[in-house]
Amino acid sequence: MSKLKDKLQEKIEAWRPRTTALLKKAGDVKLGDVTIGMAIGGARGVKCLVTDISYLDPQEGIRFRGFTIPETLQKLPKVPGSDMPYVEGFLYLLLTGDVPTKADAEEVAGELKARAAVPQYVFDVLRAMPRDTHPMTMLSAAILCMQRDSIYVKRYNEGLGKNDHWDPTYEDAMNLLARLPEIGAYIFRMKYRADTPIAPDPKLDWGGNFAHMMGVPQPYDDVSRLYFILHSDHESGNVSAHTGHLVASALSDVYYSASAMINGLAGPLHGLANQEVLRWIQGVMEKMGGKIPTEEEMGKFVWDTLESGQVVPGFGHAVLRKTDPRYMEQRNFCLKHLPNDPIFKYVDLLFKVVPPILEKQGKAKNPWPNVDAQSGVIQWYYGVREYDFYTCLFGIGRALGVMCNIIWDRALGYPIERPKSVTTAMLEEVAAKAEAAAKK
Ligand SMILES: CC(C)(COP(=O)(O)OP(=O)(O)OC[C@H]1O[C@@H](n2cnc3c(N)ncnc32)[C@H](O)[C@@H]1OP(=O)(O)O)[C@@H](O)C(=O)NCCC(=O)NCCS
Protein backbone atom coordinates (compact mmCIF):
# COMPACT_ATOMS: atom_id res chain seq x y z
CA MET A 1 0.00 0.00 0.00
CA SER A 2 1.27 3.54 -0.74
CA LYS A 3 2.20 5.75 2.20
CA LEU A 4 -0.62 8.11 1.31
CA LYS A 5 -3.15 5.29 1.29
CA ASP A 6 -1.81 4.00 4.61
CA LYS A 7 -2.15 7.41 6.15
CA LEU A 8 -5.62 7.81 4.70
CA GLN A 9 -6.72 4.50 6.17
CA GLU A 10 -5.54 5.65 9.60
CA LYS A 11 -7.46 8.92 9.22
CA ILE A 12 -10.61 7.18 8.01
CA GLU A 13 -10.64 4.71 10.88
CA ALA A 14 -10.18 7.51 13.39
CA TRP A 15 -12.91 9.60 11.78
CA ARG A 16 -15.67 7.01 11.37
CA PRO A 17 -16.74 6.97 15.05
CA ARG A 18 -17.43 10.73 14.88
CA THR A 19 -19.91 10.30 12.02
CA THR A 20 -21.46 7.25 13.67
CA ALA A 21 -21.84 9.07 17.00
CA LEU A 22 -23.43 12.12 15.36
CA LEU A 23 -25.96 9.98 13.57
CA LYS A 24 -26.75 7.90 16.63
CA LYS A 25 -26.87 10.59 19.28
CA ALA A 26 -27.86 13.69 17.35
CA GLY A 27 -29.51 12.50 14.14
CA ASP A 28 -32.74 14.38 15.00
CA VAL A 29 -31.13 17.68 15.95
CA LYS A 30 -32.23 20.45 13.54
CA LEU A 31 -29.62 22.12 11.33
CA GLY A 32 -31.95 24.78 9.93
CA ASP A 33 -35.28 25.50 8.26
CA VAL A 34 -36.17 25.38 4.59
CA THR A 35 -38.31 28.20 3.23
CA ILE A 36 -40.40 28.28 0.06
CA GLY A 37 -37.80 30.69 -1.34
CA MET A 38 -35.06 28.14 -0.75
CA ALA A 39 -37.04 25.34 -2.35
CA ILE A 40 -37.79 27.35 -5.50
CA GLY A 41 -34.42 29.07 -5.38
CA GLY A 42 -32.08 26.19 -6.12
CA ALA A 43 -31.73 24.99 -2.50
CA ARG A 44 -29.68 28.14 -1.78
CA GLY A 45 -28.59 28.11 1.87
CA VAL A 46 -30.09 24.71 2.70
CA LYS A 47 -27.55 22.99 4.93
CA CYS A 48 -27.79 19.37 3.90
CA LEU A 49 -24.33 18.35 2.70
CA VAL A 50 -21.31 17.34 4.75
CA THR A 51 -17.67 17.66 3.73
CA ASP A 52 -14.43 18.18 5.61
CA ILE A 53 -12.28 18.82 2.55
CA SER A 54 -13.09 22.54 2.32
CA TYR A 55 -15.46 25.10 3.79
CA LEU A 56 -16.70 28.31 2.17
CA ASP A 57 -17.30 31.20 4.52
CA PRO A 58 -19.46 33.87 2.80
CA GLN A 59 -17.27 36.70 4.15
CA GLU A 60 -13.86 35.11 4.18
CA GLY A 61 -13.91 32.74 1.21
CA ILE A 62 -12.62 29.22 0.92
CA ARG A 63 -10.55 27.31 3.49
CA PHE A 64 -8.96 24.05 2.39
CA ARG A 65 -8.79 21.71 5.38
CA GLY A 66 -8.98 24.78 7.60
CA PHE A 67 -6.38 26.85 5.76
CA THR A 68 -7.04 30.05 3.81
CA ILE A 69 -5.53 30.28 0.33
CA PRO A 70 -2.48 32.33 1.43
CA GLU A 71 -1.90 29.90 4.32
CA THR A 72 -2.24 26.90 2.01
CA LEU A 73 0.26 28.30 -0.49
CA GLN A 74 2.67 29.24 2.29
CA LYS A 75 2.53 25.94 4.20
CA LEU A 76 2.83 23.46 1.33
CA PRO A 77 6.26 22.32 0.11
CA LYS A 78 7.35 24.12 -3.05
CA VAL A 79 8.51 22.52 -6.26
CA PRO A 80 12.27 23.20 -6.42
CA GLY A 81 13.01 26.39 -8.35
CA SER A 82 9.34 27.42 -8.35
CA ASP A 83 7.18 29.89 -6.38
CA MET A 84 4.28 27.46 -6.19
CA PRO A 85 3.68 24.28 -4.21
CA TYR A 86 3.43 20.75 -5.53
CA VAL A 87 -0.18 20.04 -6.54
CA GLU A 88 0.62 16.54 -5.26
CA GLY A 89 1.30 17.96 -1.78
CA PHE A 90 -1.99 19.82 -1.98
CA LEU A 91 -3.74 16.57 -2.82
CA TYR A 92 -2.13 15.03 0.26
CA LEU A 93 -3.49 17.90 2.35
CA LEU A 94 -7.01 17.60 0.91
CA LEU A 95 -7.10 13.84 1.42
CA THR A 96 -5.57 13.55 4.87
CA GLY A 97 -6.01 16.98 6.45
CA ASP A 98 -2.28 17.05 7.29
CA VAL A 99 0.34 19.35 5.81
CA PRO A 100 2.78 17.14 3.91
CA THR A 101 6.55 17.30 4.09
CA LYS A 102 8.47 17.68 0.84
CA ALA A 103 9.15 13.93 0.98
CA ASP A 104 5.40 13.24 1.34
CA ALA A 105 4.62 15.45 -1.67
CA GLU A 106 7.30 13.74 -3.73
CA GLU A 107 6.02 10.34 -2.74
CA VAL A 108 2.53 11.27 -4.00
CA ALA A 109 4.16 12.63 -7.17
CA GLY A 110 5.82 9.23 -7.62
CA GLU A 111 2.54 7.41 -7.04
CA LEU A 112 0.75 9.53 -9.66
CA LYS A 113 3.58 9.06 -12.17
CA ALA A 114 3.33 5.30 -11.77
CA ARG A 115 -0.37 5.52 -12.69
CA ALA A 116 -0.09 8.14 -15.43
CA ALA A 117 -0.14 6.06 -18.62
CA VAL A 118 -3.22 7.03 -20.63
CA PRO A 119 -4.68 4.04 -22.50
CA GLN A 120 -4.42 4.34 -26.30
CA TYR A 121 -8.19 3.90 -26.67
CA VAL A 122 -8.73 7.27 -24.93
CA PHE A 123 -6.77 9.01 -27.68
CA ASP A 124 -8.67 6.96 -30.27
CA VAL A 125 -12.00 8.12 -28.80
CA LEU A 126 -10.82 11.74 -28.84
CA ARG A 127 -9.58 11.46 -32.39
CA ALA A 128 -12.88 9.95 -33.53
CA MET A 129 -14.82 13.02 -32.39
CA PRO A 130 -15.39 15.90 -34.83
CA ARG A 131 -12.47 18.30 -34.28
CA ASP A 132 -14.82 21.22 -33.61
CA THR A 133 -16.39 19.41 -30.62
CA HIS A 134 -16.20 21.58 -27.48
CA PRO A 135 -13.13 20.59 -25.43
CA MET A 136 -15.32 20.06 -22.36
CA THR A 137 -17.32 17.47 -24.31
CA MET A 138 -14.04 15.82 -25.25
CA LEU A 139 -12.77 15.87 -21.67
CA SER A 140 -16.03 14.42 -20.38
CA ALA A 141 -16.01 11.68 -23.04
CA ALA A 142 -12.34 10.84 -22.39
CA ILE A 143 -13.07 10.40 -18.68
CA LEU A 144 -16.24 8.42 -19.29
CA CYS A 145 -14.66 5.98 -21.72
CA MET A 146 -12.11 4.96 -19.05
CA GLN A 147 -15.00 3.63 -16.97
CA ARG A 148 -14.24 0.19 -18.44
CA ASP A 149 -11.05 0.22 -16.33
CA SER A 150 -12.83 0.85 -13.03
CA ILE A 151 -11.27 -1.19 -10.24
CA TYR A 152 -14.21 -0.24 -8.02
CA VAL A 153 -16.70 -1.92 -10.36
CA LYS A 154 -14.57 -5.06 -10.51
CA ARG A 155 -14.21 -5.25 -6.74
CA TYR A 156 -17.90 -4.36 -6.19
CA ASN A 157 -18.93 -7.23 -8.45
CA GLU A 158 -16.69 -9.58 -6.50
CA GLY A 159 -18.41 -8.50 -3.27
CA LEU A 160 -17.21 -5.59 -1.19
CA GLY A 161 -17.81 -4.89 2.51
CA LYS A 162 -19.20 -1.44 3.31
CA ASN A 163 -16.02 -0.36 5.08
CA ASP A 164 -13.89 -1.31 2.10
CA HIS A 165 -15.63 0.77 -0.59
CA TRP A 166 -13.17 3.63 -0.22
CA ASP A 167 -10.19 1.45 -1.11
CA PRO A 168 -10.92 0.70 -4.81
CA THR A 169 -12.44 4.19 -5.07
CA TYR A 170 -9.05 5.54 -4.05
CA GLU A 171 -7.41 3.39 -6.74
CA ASP A 172 -9.76 4.67 -9.45
CA ALA A 173 -9.49 8.28 -8.25
CA MET A 174 -5.69 8.24 -8.24
CA ASN A 175 -5.59 6.60 -11.68
CA LEU A 176 -7.95 9.22 -13.05
CA LEU A 177 -6.09 12.15 -11.48
CA ALA A 178 -2.77 10.82 -12.74
CA ARG A 179 -4.06 10.73 -16.31
CA LEU A 180 -5.93 14.04 -16.45
CA PRO A 181 -3.01 16.40 -17.23
CA GLU A 182 -2.01 14.39 -20.29
CA ILE A 183 -5.62 14.05 -21.47
CA GLY A 184 -6.23 17.79 -21.07
CA ALA A 185 -3.00 18.79 -22.82
CA TYR A 186 -3.64 16.25 -25.59
CA ILE A 187 -7.07 17.77 -26.30
CA PHE A 188 -5.46 21.22 -26.42
CA ARG A 189 -2.62 20.27 -28.76
CA MET A 190 -4.87 18.15 -30.98
CA LYS A 191 -7.50 20.86 -31.37
CA TYR A 192 -5.51 24.05 -31.27
CA ARG A 193 -1.86 23.30 -32.06
CA ALA A 194 -2.15 21.51 -35.41
CA ASP A 195 -2.46 18.09 -33.80
CA THR A 196 1.04 18.04 -32.29
CA PRO A 197 0.77 16.31 -28.89
CA ILE A 198 3.82 16.53 -26.62
CA ALA A 199 4.86 13.41 -24.70
CA PRO A 200 4.92 13.65 -20.89
CA ASP A 201 8.25 14.20 -19.11
CA PRO A 202 8.45 11.70 -16.23
CA LYS A 203 10.87 13.95 -14.35
CA LEU A 204 8.28 16.67 -13.89
CA ASP A 205 5.62 17.17 -11.21
CA TRP A 206 1.88 17.08 -12.04
CA GLY A 207 1.53 20.82 -12.70
CA GLY A 208 4.94 21.18 -14.36
CA ASN A 209 4.29 18.25 -16.64
CA PHE A 210 0.95 19.71 -17.67
CA ALA A 211 2.66 22.98 -18.68
CA HIS A 212 5.31 20.98 -20.57
CA MET A 213 2.67 18.96 -22.46
CA MET A 214 0.79 22.17 -23.28
CA GLY A 215 4.00 23.43 -24.84
CA VAL A 216 3.98 26.66 -22.83
CA PRO A 217 7.26 27.78 -21.21
CA GLN A 218 7.84 28.94 -17.62
CA PRO A 219 6.29 30.41 -15.57
CA TYR A 220 3.26 28.62 -17.04
CA ASP A 221 4.17 25.68 -14.81
CA ASP A 222 3.50 27.91 -11.80
CA VAL A 223 0.34 29.25 -13.44
CA SER A 224 -0.86 25.66 -13.79
CA ARG A 225 0.00 24.70 -10.21
CA LEU A 226 -1.74 27.82 -8.86
CA TYR A 227 -4.72 27.40 -11.13
CA PHE A 228 -5.31 23.74 -10.24
CA ILE A 229 -5.02 24.44 -6.52
CA LEU A 230 -7.35 27.45 -6.61
CA HIS A 231 -10.01 25.65 -8.61
CA SER A 232 -9.84 22.33 -6.76
CA ASP A 233 -12.72 22.66 -4.32
CA HIS A 234 -15.30 25.16 -3.12
CA GLU A 235 -17.17 23.09 -0.55
CA SER A 236 -19.86 20.70 -1.75
CA GLY A 237 -22.92 22.61 -2.94
CA ASN A 238 -21.59 24.11 -6.19
CA VAL A 239 -22.82 22.40 -9.36
CA SER A 240 -19.63 20.49 -10.24
CA ALA A 241 -18.80 19.26 -6.74
CA HIS A 242 -22.40 18.47 -5.96
CA THR A 243 -22.89 16.60 -9.24
CA GLY A 244 -19.79 14.51 -8.57
CA HIS A 245 -21.04 13.69 -5.09
CA LEU A 246 -24.62 12.99 -6.22
CA VAL A 247 -23.66 10.61 -9.01
CA ALA A 248 -21.15 8.83 -6.76
CA SER A 249 -23.83 8.46 -4.08
CA ALA A 250 -25.55 5.90 -6.32
CA LEU A 251 -22.23 3.98 -6.06
CA SER A 252 -21.48 4.88 -9.64
CA ASP A 253 -17.70 4.78 -9.99
CA VAL A 254 -15.50 7.88 -10.17
CA TYR A 255 -15.36 7.87 -13.98
CA TYR A 256 -19.15 8.25 -14.20
CA SER A 257 -19.06 10.84 -11.42
CA ALA A 258 -16.17 12.90 -12.80
CA SER A 259 -17.59 12.92 -16.31
CA ALA A 260 -20.90 14.21 -14.91
CA MET A 261 -19.16 16.84 -12.80
CA ILE A 262 -17.39 18.07 -15.96
CA ASN A 263 -20.76 18.37 -17.70
CA GLY A 264 -22.08 20.55 -14.87
CA LEU A 265 -18.97 22.69 -14.93
CA ALA A 266 -19.53 23.34 -18.63
CA GLY A 267 -22.50 25.66 -17.98
CA PRO A 268 -22.09 29.43 -18.46
CA LEU A 269 -23.26 30.22 -14.93
CA HIS A 270 -20.54 27.96 -13.50
CA GLY A 271 -17.13 27.10 -14.98
CA LEU A 272 -17.76 28.48 -18.44
CA ALA A 273 -17.92 31.97 -16.91
CA ASN A 274 -14.15 32.40 -17.24
CA GLN A 275 -14.35 32.20 -21.02
CA GLU A 276 -17.40 34.48 -20.97
CA VAL A 277 -15.37 37.08 -19.04
CA LEU A 278 -12.70 37.18 -21.73
CA ARG A 279 -15.22 37.19 -24.57
CA TRP A 280 -17.06 40.07 -22.92
CA ILE A 281 -13.89 42.09 -22.25
CA GLN A 282 -12.67 41.59 -25.78
CA GLY A 283 -16.03 42.81 -27.08
CA VAL A 284 -15.50 45.97 -25.04
CA MET A 285 -11.89 46.27 -26.29
CA GLU A 286 -13.03 45.98 -29.88
CA LYS A 287 -15.58 48.74 -29.41
CA MET A 288 -12.90 50.90 -27.76
CA GLY A 289 -10.41 50.26 -30.59
CA GLY A 290 -8.04 48.66 -28.05
CA LYS A 291 -7.60 51.75 -25.85
CA ILE A 292 -8.20 51.55 -22.10
CA PRO A 293 -11.61 53.09 -21.41
CA THR A 294 -12.19 55.73 -18.77
CA GLU A 295 -14.16 54.65 -15.70
CA GLU A 296 -17.17 56.40 -17.20
CA GLU A 297 -16.88 54.64 -20.55
CA MET A 298 -16.43 51.27 -18.83
CA GLY A 299 -19.42 52.01 -16.62
CA LYS A 300 -21.52 52.56 -19.73
CA PHE A 301 -20.52 49.15 -21.14
CA VAL A 302 -21.50 47.53 -17.86
CA TRP A 303 -24.89 49.25 -17.84
CA ASP A 304 -25.45 48.32 -21.50
CA THR A 305 -24.82 44.67 -20.60
CA LEU A 306 -27.22 44.80 -17.67
CA GLU A 307 -29.88 46.64 -19.63
CA SER A 308 -29.75 44.07 -22.41
CA GLY A 309 -30.72 41.49 -19.76
CA GLN A 310 -27.32 39.81 -19.47
CA VAL A 311 -25.21 39.19 -16.39
CA VAL A 312 -21.76 40.73 -15.99
CA PRO A 313 -19.57 37.65 -16.18
CA GLY A 314 -17.06 37.12 -13.39
CA PHE A 315 -19.10 39.00 -10.79
CA GLY A 316 -21.50 37.69 -8.16
CA HIS A 317 -21.57 34.43 -6.28
CA ALA A 318 -24.18 32.13 -4.82
CA VAL A 319 -22.47 31.96 -1.41
CA LEU A 320 -19.64 34.51 -1.23
CA ARG A 321 -20.45 38.03 -0.13
CA LYS A 322 -16.97 39.52 -0.56
CA THR A 323 -14.28 39.58 -3.24
CA ASP A 324 -13.29 35.99 -3.92
CA PRO A 325 -9.83 35.28 -2.43
CA ARG A 326 -9.16 33.12 -5.49
CA TYR A 327 -9.61 36.32 -7.52
CA MET A 328 -7.20 38.16 -5.21
CA GLU A 329 -4.53 35.47 -5.41
CA GLN A 330 -4.63 35.59 -9.22
CA ARG A 331 -4.63 39.39 -9.11
CA ASN A 332 -1.44 39.24 -7.01
CA PHE A 333 0.05 36.96 -9.65
CA CYS A 334 -0.92 39.44 -12.39
CA LEU A 335 0.53 42.38 -10.45
CA LYS A 336 3.80 40.47 -10.20
CA HIS A 337 4.03 38.99 -13.70
CA LEU A 338 1.83 41.02 -16.06
CA PRO A 339 1.07 44.40 -14.49
CA ASN A 340 1.04 46.24 -17.83
CA ASP A 341 -1.01 43.76 -19.80
CA PRO A 342 -3.95 45.63 -21.40
CA ILE A 343 -6.50 42.91 -20.59
CA PHE A 344 -5.35 42.88 -16.97
CA LYS A 345 -5.85 46.65 -16.96
CA TYR A 346 -9.41 46.13 -18.19
CA VAL A 347 -10.02 43.54 -15.48
CA ASP A 348 -8.64 45.84 -12.84
CA LEU A 349 -10.81 48.67 -14.10
CA LEU A 350 -13.84 46.39 -13.91
CA PHE A 351 -12.90 45.61 -10.29
CA LYS A 352 -13.36 49.34 -9.61
CA VAL A 353 -16.38 49.99 -11.79
CA VAL A 354 -18.68 46.95 -11.59
CA PRO A 355 -19.37 46.55 -7.83
CA PRO A 356 -20.93 50.02 -7.34
CA ILE A 357 -23.04 49.52 -10.47
CA LEU A 358 -24.32 46.12 -9.36
CA GLU A 359 -25.03 47.63 -5.94
CA LYS A 360 -26.95 50.46 -7.56
CA GLN A 361 -28.91 48.04 -9.74
CA GLY A 362 -29.77 46.24 -6.51
CA LYS A 363 -30.28 42.73 -7.82
CA ALA A 364 -27.05 40.78 -7.31
CA LYS A 365 -26.59 39.75 -3.68
CA ASN A 366 -22.82 39.88 -4.16
CA PRO A 367 -21.46 42.66 -6.37
CA TRP A 368 -17.84 41.54 -6.01
CA PRO A 369 -15.67 39.63 -8.51
CA ASN A 370 -15.32 35.86 -8.41
CA VAL A 371 -12.49 33.56 -9.49
CA ASP A 372 -13.48 33.64 -13.15
CA ALA A 373 -12.93 37.37 -13.53
CA GLN A 374 -9.13 36.91 -13.47
CA SER A 375 -8.25 33.45 -14.65
CA GLY A 376 -8.76 33.87 -18.40
CA VAL A 377 -6.49 36.93 -18.46
CA ILE A 378 -3.51 34.94 -17.21
CA GLN A 379 -4.08 32.15 -19.72
CA TRP A 380 -4.39 34.65 -22.55
CA TYR A 381 -1.17 36.39 -21.53
CA TYR A 382 0.79 33.13 -21.70
CA GLY A 383 -0.53 32.35 -25.15
CA VAL A 384 -3.37 29.97 -24.27
CA ARG A 385 -5.89 32.05 -26.17
CA GLU A 386 -8.44 29.45 -27.17
CA TYR A 387 -10.87 30.33 -24.44
CA ASP A 388 -13.14 27.41 -25.11
CA PHE A 389 -10.38 25.46 -23.39
CA TYR A 390 -10.35 27.41 -20.13
CA THR A 391 -13.11 25.41 -18.50
CA CYS A 392 -11.08 22.23 -19.09
CA LEU A 393 -8.35 23.72 -16.91
CA PHE A 394 -10.98 24.38 -14.26
CA GLY A 395 -12.23 20.80 -14.65
CA ILE A 396 -8.79 19.24 -14.18
CA GLY A 397 -8.33 21.28 -11.01
CA ARG A 398 -11.86 20.58 -9.74
CA ALA A 399 -11.27 16.85 -10.15
CA LEU A 400 -8.79 17.03 -7.24
CA GLY A 401 -11.46 18.15 -4.78
CA VAL A 402 -14.23 16.00 -6.20
CA MET A 403 -12.08 12.85 -6.05
CA CYS A 404 -11.11 13.52 -2.40
CA ASN A 405 -14.74 14.07 -1.53
CA ILE A 406 -15.90 10.87 -3.18
CA ILE A 407 -13.21 8.81 -1.43
CA TRP A 408 -14.34 10.22 1.91
CA ASP A 409 -18.04 9.79 1.02
CA ARG A 410 -17.34 6.10 0.54
CA ALA A 411 -15.13 5.91 3.63
CA LEU A 412 -17.86 7.34 5.85
CA GLY A 413 -20.60 5.36 4.15
CA TYR A 414 -22.69 8.36 3.07
CA PRO A 415 -25.91 7.01 1.57
CA ILE A 416 -27.51 7.62 -1.80
CA GLU A 417 -28.65 11.24 -2.01
CA ARG A 418 -32.38 11.73 -2.22
CA PRO A 419 -33.87 15.12 -1.24
CA LYS A 420 -37.68 15.34 -1.18
CA SER A 421 -39.66 17.37 -3.70
CA VAL A 422 -43.11 18.93 -3.26
CA THR A 423 -45.65 20.29 -5.76
CA THR A 424 -46.49 23.95 -6.43
CA ALA A 425 -49.98 23.32 -4.99
CA MET A 426 -48.41 22.08 -1.75
CA LEU A 427 -46.31 25.24 -1.53
CA GLU A 428 -49.44 27.37 -2.13
CA GLU A 429 -51.20 25.53 0.66
CA VAL A 430 -48.31 26.08 3.07
CA ALA A 431 -48.15 29.76 2.02
CA ALA A 432 -51.92 30.22 2.58
CA LYS A 433 -51.74 28.63 6.04
CA ALA A 434 -48.81 30.90 6.99
CA GLU A 435 -50.76 33.94 5.76
CA ALA A 436 -53.85 32.95 7.75
CA ALA A 437 -51.80 32.34 10.90
CA ALA A 438 -50.13 35.75 10.52
CA LYS A 439 -53.59 37.45 10.37
CA LYS A 440 -54.79 35.88 13.63
C1 LIG B 1 -22.70 33.33 -9.92
C2 LIG B 1 -24.20 33.53 -10.05
C3 LIG B 1 -24.73 32.47 -11.03
C4 LIG B 1 -24.87 33.36 -8.69
O1 LIG B 1 -26.25 33.33 -8.90
P1 LIG B 1 -27.27 33.65 -7.73
O2 LIG B 1 -26.88 32.97 -6.47
O3 LIG B 1 -28.64 33.38 -8.27
O4 LIG B 1 -27.03 35.22 -7.54
P2 LIG B 1 -27.98 36.25 -6.80
O5 LIG B 1 -28.83 35.62 -5.76
O6 LIG B 1 -27.09 37.38 -6.41
O7 LIG B 1 -28.95 36.72 -8.00
C5 LIG B 1 -29.97 37.68 -7.77
C6 LIG B 1 -30.20 38.47 -9.06
O8 LIG B 1 -29.00 39.20 -9.36
C7 LIG B 1 -28.59 38.91 -10.66
N1 LIG B 1 -27.15 38.88 -10.74
C8 LIG B 1 -26.29 38.13 -9.99
N2 LIG B 1 -25.03 38.29 -10.44
C9 LIG B 1 -25.08 39.16 -11.46
C10 LIG B 1 -24.11 39.69 -12.34
N3 LIG B 1 -22.83 39.34 -12.29
N4 LIG B 1 -24.52 40.56 -13.29
C11 LIG B 1 -25.82 40.89 -13.38
N5 LIG B 1 -26.80 40.41 -12.61
C12 LIG B 1 -26.42 39.55 -11.65
C13 LIG B 1 -29.13 37.52 -10.93
O9 LIG B 1 -29.18 37.24 -12.33
C14 LIG B 1 -30.46 37.57 -10.28
O10 LIG B 1 -31.34 38.30 -11.13
P3 LIG B 1 -32.92 37.89 -11.25
O11 LIG B 1 -33.46 38.15 -9.88
O12 LIG B 1 -33.41 38.81 -12.33
O13 LIG B 1 -32.94 36.45 -11.64
C15 LIG B 1 -24.52 34.96 -10.59
O14 LIG B 1 -23.95 35.91 -9.73
C16 LIG B 1 -24.01 35.17 -12.01
O15 LIG B 1 -24.75 34.87 -12.96
N6 LIG B 1 -22.79 35.73 -12.18
C17 LIG B 1 -22.20 35.89 -13.48
C18 LIG B 1 -21.66 34.58 -14.00
C19 LIG B 1 -20.44 34.14 -13.21
O16 LIG B 1 -19.53 34.91 -13.00
N7 LIG B 1 -20.40 32.85 -12.84
C20 LIG B 1 -19.24 32.27 -12.15
C21 LIG B 1 -19.51 31.97 -10.73
S1 LIG B 1 -18.12 31.40 -9.87
Verbal overview:
The chain is an all-alpha fold and 440 residues long. The chain has 20 helices and two strands. It has a two-stranded antiparallel sheet with strand order 1-2. The chain starts with a helix and ends with a helix.
Secondary-structure content class: mainly alpha
Q: Between the first and last Cα atoms, what is the distance in angstroms?
A: 67 Å
Low-confidence stretches: none
Number of helices: 20
Indicate the mean pLDDT: 96
Q: What is the gyration radius calculated from CA atoms?
A: 22 Å
Strand order of the largest sheet: 1-2
Largest sheet: 2 strands, antiparallel
Strand content: under 5%
Helix content: 55-70%
Q: H/E element string? A: HHEEHHHHHHHHHHHHHHHHHH
For the secondary structure, the number of strands is: 2
What bound compounds does this protein have? coenzyme A
The backbone outline, from C-alpha atoms, is: globular
How are the elements arranged and paired?
Blueprint: H1 3-26, H2 36-40, E1 54-57, E2 61-64, H3 69-75, H4 87-96, H5 102-114, H6 120-128, H7 135-145, H8 151-158, H9 166-192, H10 206-214, H11 220-231, H12 239-249, H13 254-265, H14 273-287, H15 295-307, H16 325-337, H17 342-361, H18 372-381, H19 390-411, H20 424-439
Antiparallel strand pairs: 1-2
Helix pairs in contact: 4-5, 5-9, 6-7, 6-9, 7-9, 7-13, 8-9, 9-10, 9-19, 10-11, 11-19, 12-13, 12-19, 13-19, 14-18, 15-17, 16-18
This protein binds coenzyme A.
Coenzyme A (COA) binds next to loops.
What are the defining features of this structure?
mainly alpha; single chain; 440 residues; binds coenzyme A; two-stranded antiparallel sheet; 2 strands
